[in-house]
Design goal:
six-stranded mixed sheet; 245 residues; three-stranded antiparallel sheet; 9 strands; alpha/beta
Length: 245
């Protein structure tokens, strides 16, 4: 079957042997017939978490998955429903293959919309960070990082911009540290970060007022003569010990 929605990750924590066996056998078929591709992952990285409804309900803080499905139990006591942040559904303990396929498809459709909102939220946060960077300059509290390397257009493909991208690729770094280590001025830095190619892979986080700026990045190399002296010293000591380490 052709997939119309991207892959979804799922974790099932079912302790009753009969429920677990029923889910695993039907899931093997339902996953092939669903609108989405499915893969089972550990709980902490799952987008859909399947739990037994008979077990004590876990708190929302303990559930990072945006979708939760309760198998069995009383639906009236379960936090079912849909919001912008999450979706929870109920399956009868004797659910059928059709029930499971329907649940998987509804979860996949919700996640497609949820992912789009998450992406929009990240974009909004980045735009706000860039606005503060333009207004506050080196005092901006945001740190920036590249998720992957980016190819710059010809006019922007300068040695200085390459140094900035290299710094951004190493980890979260604030504007002052970028300027100190690359020599770039704030107007040029803002222009670089405003490029669509850069913004597509740029992420930001907020540095607290107590957190120091990134540690200086040493670019000094040890002189060759110093390295030679150290090697000669080690060799002399080794000979003096009769070749013993």
């Amino acid at each position: 079957m052709a997939r119309t929605i991207g892959e979804v990750s799922l974790a099932a924590e079912l302790w009753t042997p009969a429920v677990q066996q029923r889910f695993e056998s039907l899931f093997a078929v339902a996953a092939r017939k669903s609108l989405s591709g499915w893969r089972q992952v550990p709980r902490h990285s799952a987008e859909v978490l399947v739990l037994e409804g008979f077990a004590p309900l876990i708190s929302k803080d303990e559930t990072k998955a945006p979708c939760v499905v309760y198998v069995g139990g009383e639906a009236s006591t379960q936090p079912l429903g849909r919001s912008s942040q999450g979706w929870a559904a109920h399956l009868d303990v004797d659910f059928t293959l059709s029930d499971l396929i329907d649940m998987l498809d509804r979860a996949a459709v919700f996640l497609m919309d949820w992912r789009a909102r998450q992406k929009a939220s990240v974009t909004l946060t980045l735009q706000r960070a860039l606005e503060e960077l333009q207004q506050q300059g080196l005092d901006c509290m945001h740190r920036f990082q590249l998720r992957s390397w980016v190819a710059l257009p010809g006019s922007a493909n300068t040695a200085q911009n390459m140094r900035v991208l290299a710094l951004l690729s190493r980890g979260p770094i604030d504007a002052k540290s970028i300027s100190d280590h690359s020599g770039i001025e704030m107007p040029q830095l803002f222009t670089l970060m405003s490029l669509p190619q850069v913004q597509a892979v740029l992420r930001c986080s907020l540095r607290s007022s107590q957190e120091p700026s990134a540690a200086p990045i040493s670019t000094k190399t040890q002189p060759a003569t110093s390295v030679t002296r150290q090697w000669v010293s080690k060799l002399t000591g080794w000979i003096a010990r009769g070749g013993r380490s």
